[in-house]
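Example pasted here:
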Amino acid sequence: MKQDKTETEKRSSTSPSFLSLVLSSLSTSSSIESLKLFHYNILEATVYLLDYINYILIALKHLSTINDSIS
C-alpha cells in the first residue's frame, strides 16, 4: 500500500496538471494571435451585419416613400 502511494505521488509530481497545461497554452503567443484573429473576425462580421441592416432600412424607407406617392 505504501508503495502504491509513492507511485501515485511520483506520477502526480512528474505529470503536469490539466490546469497548468491550459494556463501554459494560454500564455503562448500563438494562442494570443489566434484570439486576436478571432476577435478581428467577430468585429468584421459585426460591421458586415450592420451594413446589411443599414441597406434593409434604406430599402424600407424607399418602399414607404413609394407607397406614400401611390396613395
